[in-house]
Amino acid sequence: MIPRIFIPVDASAVSVGADRVAQAMAHELAMRGIAADIVRTGSRGAFFLEPMVEVATLVGRVAYGPVTPADIASLIDAHFLSGGHHPLRLGPPEGLPFFAHQERLTFSRSGIVDPLSTADYRAHGGWRGLEAALKLSGAEIVEEVTRSGLRGRGGAGFPTGLKWRTVLNAPTQQKYVVCNADEGDSGTFADRMLLEGDPFGLIEGMTIAGLAVGASIGYVYIRSEYGHAFRTFSKAVEIARAEGYLGRAIEGSDHAFDIVPRLGAGAYICGEETSMLESLEGKRGIVRAKPPVPALKGLFGQPTVINNVLSLMAVPTILAEGAEAYADFGMGRSRGTLPFQLAGNIKFGGLVEKAFGLTLGELIHDFGGGTLSGRPIKAVQVGGPLGAYFSADMLDTPMDYEAFAARGGMLGHGGVVVFDDTVDMAEQARFAFEFCAKESCGKCTPCRLGATRGRETIEAIIAGRDVERNLALVADLAEVMADGSLCAMGGLTPDPVVSAIRHFGADFRRPFRTAAE
Amino acid sequence: MSEGQASRPAPWDEATAASIVAARGQEPGAMLPILHDLQAAFGYVDAAAVPIIADRLNVSRAEVHGVVSFYHDFRDHPAGRHVLKICRGEACQAVGCRALVDHLDICHGLATGATTADGDLTVEEIFCLGNCALGPSVLYDGELIGRVDAKTLDGLVAEAREPR
Ligand SMILES: Cc1cc2nc3c(=O)[nH]c(=O)nc-3n(C[C@H](O)[C@H](O)[C@H](O)COP(=O)(O)O)c2cc1C
Ligand code: SF4
Ligand code: FES
To answer: What is the largest CA-CA distance in chain B?
Structure first.
């Protein structure tokens, strides 16, 4: 048998040289006259080990990493093709501490399969959810998703089954499924990894959503910062169509479903669902007032399911394994698993899929290994730019929607950004306002003007001018924004600001700053 | 993508623009795909494209103009020959992107948003490239680069300014 070598083509792996490694590998093998297949995969998500190269051996896969082009000759000399010993040898990837304690449902294939092979997808459990769904009525599919307890993974945590039922019961012919792949939150990359590493999983999840609610067309809105993911996903859609997994007769049934990938254009607010609909319709991404909810009046005015990539990707597992099997994971009202993303100043950064309920500290220390710089942790921002900052003594918080809300935070899309003790939290608060001012859609005054005013006020505080009076002014502004904004952009921007002031007050009251008054 | 400058953008040409608009005009919600295609072809969206799009999509010129100006991606004039987008998102802040932004400004005279006088390089800010475990990150002519430091930036600036 010809040996198989697996090298990621995931954008993050490529950003640290995976393409150069693949080229060097092909070149060196050719020079030595060794026949081998190089399969380009997604990433498993241990980014601190990328580029990670794997080979298929008689006892399973063996990984080496991080590999540079200069290592290739010595790897071949060390017989890595049969798992030979080498300083970079990591052993079976599943056995690495980073992976051994994960619970991978959504990320069961990324980094393992050829992302553009439907056969590989099937060999690793793909299409079973769709085939189960094809035997059910729409109402039965919705019931299954409802019983799984799945809540939206895009940020708000809204029950997915409830949303689907509203669309199913809407009495119109034309309905849509829209996948939110805008992934605007800094510190997150799970959607991107799946678009690149397991695109058929999303195609399967969207198709099941279409069958459930009676929609025949789906749009996937991918942010333009993800050009690489857009190209891979678009190719996967063409392949799925050519092989009968999309189109007029899904897997030979009398159900039709097709998918249109669309590119965003660099606006954070277009991740908000109604702004996204406007953008898909070809307009400026101005947020719509609700009601009507998109489930009743969405894309082109028709009933529309809008779900995040991770929500839709959870669906094939639920249909294939059953709602109970999925709901067995998790705690309280947070059922199933969440792919957490360890980012920022972290030693072992990457993708950690776990059932809800482990603590923030376990995630950062046991999986992440602490800070990259080796300095003490000062602050952690969870849930993207609108998420609250937690201090180092709050790391006992369980990763659960309700537990986070109780401490003034949110899990959002599962992004965890770690900062060491060199961070200036006044500067982070200033940035939160700056970001909101830049990305506001401009529809409501508290958001549009409040953010600019907030940034100026924090700048005054940083300069040491009227610190206590200006802090009181920020508190007032925060309240006005939280109460008077139409969407969470203006509504939640106060969270990182207020939490920074609450937990890191000293950063806003620096002696040398007040001395300059 | 729109910033992939591997193939150099062509000079503005009305006939080409009209055929790009026509090719997509039938799609529901064709506006963004059309603008992306125009920018990929010419490197920016020329003001002369606005009436062509408005005609084809049956909307007002003001509406087309509003869309072009709403989205950060679309330019109304050409960028430099090379484009460096530096990530200023929180995960990159946590590993020192602020110092890199300053480095470009102080050591190379390239403030965010600036283009070199000779038109070789434009520097822009961007908020998250989905590479948050391997920051600081930049996008150089559409290519994602992780674990960037001052030396990486010096190399990119030198490459962009190499005599053609
Ligand atoms: C400012 C703002 C940005 C958002 N960005 C995203 C995003 O990038 N991706 C996402 O899935 N949801 C985002 N959301 C949430 C969406 O509005 C919506 O709740 C979600 O797509 C619903 O899908 P889900 O129920 O599967 O989570 C954002 C919301 C707001 C207010
Ligand atoms: S809160 Fe901000 S982003 Fe949201 S609708 Fe109002 S102005 Fe637009
Ligand atoms: S914050 Fe810079 S890549 Fe995500």
So the answer is: 50
Distance in Å, CA A488 to ligand 2 centroid: 7
A298 lies in the same domain as A373: no
How many structural domains does chain B have?
Answer: 2
Which range of residues forms the domain containing residue B127? 82-161
Verify that B100 and B65 share a domain, yes or no: no
Assign A510 a pLDDT band (cuts: 50, 70, 90): confident
* Whether residue A316 is found in the same domain as residue A169: yes
Residues 431-470 of A with CB under 8 A from B: 431, 435, 439
Please tell me the distance from the alpha carbon of residue A329 to that of residue A324, in angstroms, as a whole number. Answer: 9
Question: Which pLDDT belongs to residue B5?
Answer: 46
Residues A15 and A46 occupy one common structural domain = yes
Find the mean pLDDT for residues A78-92: 97
A385: preceding bond cis by omega (within 30 degrees)? no
Percent of chain B with pLDDT over 90: 92
Looking at the 3D structure of chain A, how many domains does it have? 4
The position carrying tokens 């605007």 is A184
Q: Which residues contact A454 (CB under 8 A, 6 or more apart)?
A: A433, A436, A474, A477, A478, A481, A493, A497
Residue A240 forms part of a structural domain: yes
CATH number at residue B148: 3.40.30.10
Do A258 and A169 fall within a single domain? Answer: yes
The pLDDT, as a whole number, for residue A333 is: 80
Is residue B5 situated within a structural domain? no
**Cα separations (Å) of B43 from A48, A262, B40, B156, B159?**
35, 19, 6, 20, 20
Chain B nearest CA to A186, separation (Å): 5
- The pLDDT value recorded for residue A517 is 42
pLDDT tens profile A226-242: 999 999 999 999 999 99
Q: Is residue B8 part of a domain?
A: no
Given this model, what pLDDT does residue B80 score?
96
Per-residue confidence at A331, pLDDT binned at 50, 70, 90?
confident
CB contact under 8 Å between B73 and A224, yes or no, is yes
| pLDDT > 90? residue A99 | yes
pLDDT score recorded for residue B7: 63
Q: What ipTM score was computed for the predicted complex, to two decimals?
A: 0.96
Per DSSP, the residues of B58-69 read T--HHHHHHHHH
Classify residue A366 by its DSSP letter.
Answer: I
pLDDT under 70: residue ranges of chain B:
1-7, 164
Extract the runs of DSSP E, i.e. beta strands, from A79-190. 89-91, 176-181
pLDDT tens for each residue of A101-146: 999 999 999 999 999 999 999 999 999 999 999 999 999 999 999 9
How many Cβ atoms are within 10 Å of A166's Cβ, its own excluded? 17
Give the Cα separation of B13 and A180 in Å (integer). Answer: 35
B135 and B105 together in one domain = yes
Query: Which of B32, B33, B132 is nearest residue A343 as measured by Cβ atoms?
Result: B132
- CB proximity A68 to B under 8 Å: no
Alpha carbons B122 and B140: distance in angstroms, whole number: 10
Residues 53-112 of B with CB under 8 A from A: 57, 59, 63, 66-67, 70-74, 89-95, 98
Domain extent at residue A27: 4-100
Segment A153-168 mean pLDDT: 94
Is B139 touching ligand 3 by the criterion CB < 6 Å?
A: no
- CB contact under 8 Å between A280 and B29, yes or no, is yes
CB nearest A187 (choices: B29, B73, B90): B90
Cα-Cα end-to-end distance for chain B: 23
| Percentage with pLDDT > 70 across chain A | 99
Q: How confident is the model at residue A1 (pLDDT cuts 50, 70, 90)?
A: confident
